Amino acid sequence: MLKKFLLTLLLSSYIFAYNVGDSVDSTLVKKLSLENNKVYVLNFFASWCRSCKQELPIINTLNKNNIVGINIDKDSSKGKQFVKSLNLKFRVVYDSDNSIVKQFSPVGVPALYFIKNGKIIAQKFGAVHQVDEYIMTTLKEIK
Amino acid sequence: MQLNKLSIVASTILLAHQAYAEDFVRVQYLQYNENDNRVDVIAPSLEVNKDFGTDYTLNVKLVGDTVSGASPTYIDTSSGASAYNRGVVSNPENINKQNIDFEEDRAFASVGLTTRFENRDELTLSYSKSYESDYDSNTFSLNYLMWVDESKNRSFDITTTYQDNTILIKECDPFNYACSKSDAISGASSEQDSSLGHVQLGLTQIIDESSLAKVSIFYATEEGYLSNQYYNIVRNGNIVEAEQKPDERSSYGFGLKYFKNFGDLTTKLGYGYYSDDWEMDAHTLTIDNYYEVNTALTLGFGLRYYTQSEAEFYSNNPNFFTTQTIASMDDKMSDFDAMTYKLSFAYIQNEKLSYDLGINYYDQSTDLSATYFSAGVKYKF
Amino acid sequence: MKYIIATVMLFTLSGCVKDVSPWQKDIHAKAVMQEGDMNGLNQRFEEHIYFSKEGTKGGGSVSGGGCGCN
Fold this sequence. Notes:
The structure holds 3 protein chains of 3 kinds. By secondary structure, chain A is of the alpha/beta class.
């Protein structure tokens, strides 16, 4: 009984979380419009997350073509207002039912995932000082 | 005038705390009035908080205040109202508790820097200085916040504080043992020091999506001149002399807090226990509620109940003290209860500008009661 | 220390603690859920009144909580 409980506990916290090396579910790839042979940077953020507010204007200065923002506000109008106030130029997907973020299950917000050919190549949770440099360096390493 | 006279600039002991990562300037006006016009305080203040990237937050506070009024102590009323009317009084009927007038300008400044590490643990270092003509206080404080689990649902924190105070004893009288020293520059008769060390361990646990609990324990030790130079005692019913509290004090206690959000309403409950080697025990119960009327307006209403037992060297009876060296008639050392009734309004005008108002009423079971009021404007940049 | 250990044990053993995910922290991010009053200066002023008018002092705010996203 105890073993079963512990196993369930372990599985519930880890089995559904994406990790480096995992392939992203094909429906999710479609939902996020991720093309093959292209490297994407997924950034999970929320309007209530202060370090996201610090990072996003910096991410906004990078090449917008391979960045996809995923707003996790339950109230998407708050997310939209937030995106508008920061004048974000990259594509933003609104995940108000949190179905996307639940599949990735990052252990912290903000969260960055680097995806190539539908596969997670690198990930980073929590705020990053000089996030632009971090993204550029990681992209170089991937290519 | 230091210590017991209400001084919002004299440092509270815990200074370093988790920084709110946000760029803002706050200007605030504070006013405090005691019943019977005993003490009035007017204090304008300025606070600036600035983030440097995601890893550093700087906080600076400046407060200036003007205090005027009167504070009660036992004196020889036959020779005018001064706390220095001490000595043997031939007619004990002339020993009365009377208000001593005073007026003081003070200044306070603090600076705190928070650093966040790669694992997002935080270190906050603070320094503050409080200055008035007879009181100079310097406080150093360090807070380390350590996240225990990956999801950041549990954290430990440790706060250590060291405070060094210099007190200038301004006048001389035959009963003041420190009279022999003199300070020509400040005009003070003598200089006294006191220091305080304080350490607190805390644990914060997120319970579910809308509630959390906090537990803490602390230990503090003070030494040096812990008396108040303006406070007198009566000995044998006919001698007025300066009070003398012990020159050491150690205390410990614990705190419990529970915060719960019910949609528009957020309730915060708190309990604190305190005990020291002056044989004083205290209990504090708090409840604070915040009601978010809409996205712009938040109303706050709260209650605080405080009770303490008296210090072993306290008496309010002019015939009590005979040969005791350590003796105080300071009401702060007595057995009393106090209630605070709190009301606040916070209004967000737009993304940049917000206002707040606070009105509190404080009522002690001694004869002290006070009303205080604050009005602030915050500008986010 | 024993109180802290006791509380950790209490939380853990009673099973009343939920593993709240990062995307579920919107309520914890609210200003009203932070330690202290709605603004730091008011809290400081209030603490000082107690410091000046009451005979005991010690203990203070505890960090932690919030959205954990700083």
